[in-house]
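Example pasted here:
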Amino acid sequence: MSRRVLMLAYFFPPLGGGGVQRTSKFVKYLPDSGWTPVVVTVKEGAYWVADGTLAGDVPAGVEVVRTSSLSPFRVLRWIPGGGKRTRSEVLPGTAGASEPTSGSGVRPGDGRGVDRETA
């Protein structure tokens, strides 16, 4: 007897990135344990990372319901310049770096919240 499990996941294939892995692998392997997953996720939209290969983790017949959402990434479109800034604009002292950052201005491992004198 197969049981059903509802999975709510903002990040789900074909979106890419680290947040997608856990849900896509659960969906792939849960049927082996007698569970039928039903996934509720968002429609593809403003999120910029896509990985079509992850769609191969979703078994045929798995119900995936895609809904509309107010994505925080869409809000960036309303900011002049699309919310894209260079690293030197966000992190003083990194002049010459030109890669864009997220609109939040926070980068993993940038040391914010850590006293750099004692760290």
Observations:
- Residues 42 and 67 are 5 Å apart (CA to CA).
- Strands lie at 3-8, 35-42, 63-67, 85-86, 100-101.
- The chain has a mean pLDDT of 74.
- The helical segments are 18-29, 72-75, 87-90.
